[in-house]
Amino acid sequence: MGRIIRVGPNLWLALQRLRLGDERRVVWIDAICIDQEDTLELSNQVVPMGLIYSQTEQVVVCLGVETKGSHDAVAFLQKIGLPRWNGTG
Which one of 7, 15, 39, 77 is separated from 32 by 20 to 30 angstroms, measured CA to CA? Predict the structure, then answer.
């Protein structure tokens, strides 16, 4: 806490959309919490990530800004039956 972390444009957009105004929100962002360049760390985090996600109240997946194939991706997610998919940011 109290550190500056550089993030890419997709994560920046996701964080802006996840804000709760003045309320505090705890988020797990694997792109920040796990060194994405370290394959050993990535493989060691698979089991703990399952535990983290299984104990969440809500999971939000941000796919980035809309592109030509976005509608196909949303259709696929709806087809596989996500419990509550609204297709919005």
Answer: 77
pTM score, whole prediction: 0.56
> Distance between CA atoms of 21 and 65, rounded to whole angstroms?
22
**Helix (H, G, I), strand (E, B), or coil: what is residue 6?**
coil
Per the CB < 8 A criterion, the answer to whether 78 and 85 are in contact is yes
DSSP for residue 75: H
DSSP letters spanning 12-60: HHHHHHH--TTS------HHHHS-TT-HHHHHHTHHHHHHHHHT-S---
Q: What is the pLDDT of residues 33-76, one digit of tens each?
A: 888 888 898 888 888 888 888 888 887 777 677 888 888 877 88
